[in-house]
Automatic annotation (TrEMBL):
This is Copper amine oxidase. Keywords: Signal. The lineage of its organism: Bacteria, Bacillati, Bacillota, Bacilli, Bacillales. InterPro entries: Cu_amine_oxidase-like_N, Mao_N_sf. Pfam families: Cu_amine_oxidN1. Residues 34-111 form the Copper amine oxidase-like N-terminal domain. The keyword ATP-binding does not apply. It comes from the Bacteria. The keyword Signal applies. It comes from Paenibacillus rhizovicinus. Residues 1-23 form the signal peptide.
Length: 189
């Protein structure tokens, strides 16, 4: 009787272990690198195809992503946002560390294939501290528009890369979605 139970237990564990080994070999986790940065969620490779987290890929590519529960459909929108930084009438991209500059951000948005309710532009210093330059509710019913901030005065206290971030909200209750970035380099005098 003991031998029979031991035999059955051995067979069950063998079948279960073999199944787990097969499942592990059938799908593999893969590292996903986008523009030199590794995504937090690894991809899965199975049956000759790689599967990725849509939300993470969309965030990495600075896109808007929508999930429609009723149709079980994911839609990704990638608006083109081109930002220009003006100090008076001069375009700039580099500054001297310690300079206090008054500037404005011009943004040209096209290929906007969904409605949005608001835009926000921020500046982040090399340490990641982010300040809002301007945010505004918008009503856009076309696929392209221009947006200009008011004059903004900022002191570039340390050397390094400062990032101008352009965010959009589809609906007022949504979170802000980063859709574009522009870099300003502050160099030591």
């Amino acid at each position: 009787m003991k031998f029979r139970k031991l035999l059955i237990a051995t067979l069950v564990l063998s079948v279960w272990g073999g199944t787990m080994l097969f499942a592990d070999s059938a799908s593999q986790r893969v590292r996903v690198i986008v523009n030199g940065a590794e995504l937090d969620d690894a991809g899965i490779f199975t049956d000759g195809k790689t599967y990725l987290s849509v939300r993470q890929v969309a965030n990495t590519l600075q896109s808007l992503v929508f999930w429609d529960e009723s149709s079980k459909k994911v839609t990704i929108y990638k608006p083109n946002v081109h930002m220009f930084l003006f100090q008076d009438t001069t375009i700039f991209g580099n500054v001297v560390k310690g300079n206090k500059i008054t500037f404005k951000v011009f943004a040209q948005i096209d290929n906007l294939l969904t409605d949005i309710s608001a835009v926000k532009i921020t500046i982040a210093d090399p340490g990641g501290d982010e300040q809002v330059i301007q945010s505004k509710n918008v009503s856009v019913d076309k696929d392209n528009f221009w947006y200009r901030t008011d004059d903004y005065t900022y002191t570039f206290n340390s050397a390094g890369k400062y990032t101008i971030n352009f965010y959009m909200k589809v609906n007022a209750a949504d979170d802000w979605k980063l859709v574009s970035q522009k870099t300003i380099t502050a160099k030591a005098p």
